[in-house]
Design brief:
mainly alpha, Serine Threonine Protein Phosphatase 5, Tetratricopeptide repeat, 0% strand, elongated, protein-cysteine S-palmitoyltransferase activity, repeat, Ankyrin_rpt, Ankyrin_rpt-contain_sf
């Protein structure tokens, strides 16, 4: 007897006894099986696999799959283990030690990282936190900025996403865009930060991230532009930070012209890298002055000559 001749009730019973992978294979055998049992596949995924297909739907921008999972009872309402992202609750504090492997990811993070505006907007309409922070402390805005999705970045800003939400290493969306060289996004966020309604922002800090990453890429034209906007060539953070000059010396593919440019505009050749956050008084510290960073480079002689002049 063909399985196609079985009554739907019996087919449903068979479906409930199968693993998701086996049921999915069965559905692909015939269109009638697909029509009869497809909803069972979604219910099975929700009930026994914690709606894992949500992440596939978010990553690939499938709004129909997302809606089917929601119709099957998938839950998308949970909070980030970081302190309240959008609403400050009484007694809420930053949890300093969070085990990433114990964190539950959220589909909105996957959708933002892939630039799927339709999925992000759908989830926001359902009440998902626009400032949800993932395991690295990155919000949807930070992920969109880092991956270069301008339309999504602008949409999130228009809906009130926080521009100064920091990740686990202290960077915020503008810095994420700058780290990947998405100049249109970093310039847009810089402009928006000048109008930020939730507190005073520091253009020195914003321009620092932009100049730092431009120097690390050896992008001299970009460096000149950022300097023309008022960047301080010697600005750096007190902890876990280095000057644009040190960044160029350590990371620029061909640092000589970039180092020369930075020195010409007043970069301090003796400014060392800020101490690590893990620094303990009394323990030896490996020096990270510009000269030390120049030594391992292929054109070290020319770099050292520039620095000591």
């Amino acid at each position: 007897m063909s399985i196609l001749n079985l009554p739907p009730e019996l087919l449903m019973t068979i479906a409930e006894s199968l693993e998701c992978r086996d049921l999915n294979a069965l559905l692909q055998c015939h269109c009638c099986l697909y029509k009869t049992l497809n909803d069972s596949l979604y219910r099975l995924n929700v009930q026994h696999h914690d709606a894992s297909a949500l992440y596939w739907a978010a990553s690939f921008g499938s709004d129909s799959t997302l809606q089917r999972l929601l119709d099957a009872g998938a839950n998308i309402q949970w909070e980030s283990p970081y302190f309240a992202c959008s609403v400050q609750k009484p007694g809420t504090r930053l949890r300093r030690f969070i085990w990433k492997e114990n964190m539950k990811e959220h589909p909105i993070s996957h959708a933002a990282a892939q630039g799927h505006l339709n999925i992000v907007e759908h989830l926001l309409d359902l009440g998902v936190d626009i400032n949800y922070r993932d395991a690295d402390g990155l919000t949807p805005l930070a992920l969109a900025a880092r991956e270069g999705y301008f339309a999504l970045t602008r949409a999130l800003i228009d809906q009130g996403a926080k521009q100064l939400s920091h990740d686990t290493i202290g960077q915020y969306p503008l810095a994420q865009a700058a780290s990947k060289g998405h100049h249109n996004i970093e310039d847009y966020l810089f402009e928006k930060l000048r109008q930020y309604p939730y507190g005073k922002t520091s253009p020195d800090m914003d321009l620092y991230w932009m100049l730092k990453y431009a120097a690390e890429r050896g992008d001299n034209d970009r460096i000149r532009y950022i300097l023309s906007q008022g960047a301080n060539v010697n600005f750096q953070l007190p902890i876990e930070s280095h000057s644009p000059l040190c960044g160029a010396l350590e990371y620029a593919p061909s640092p000589l012209s970039t180092v020369k440019l930075l020195l010409e505009v007043g970069a301090d050749p003796n400014r060392e890298v800020s101490q690590s956050i893990d620094y303990q008084p009394g323990r030896p510290v490996r020096p990270q002055a510009p000269l030390n960073l120049a030594i391992p480079r292929d054109d070290s002689f020319s770099l050292i000559k520039l620095l000591i002049q």
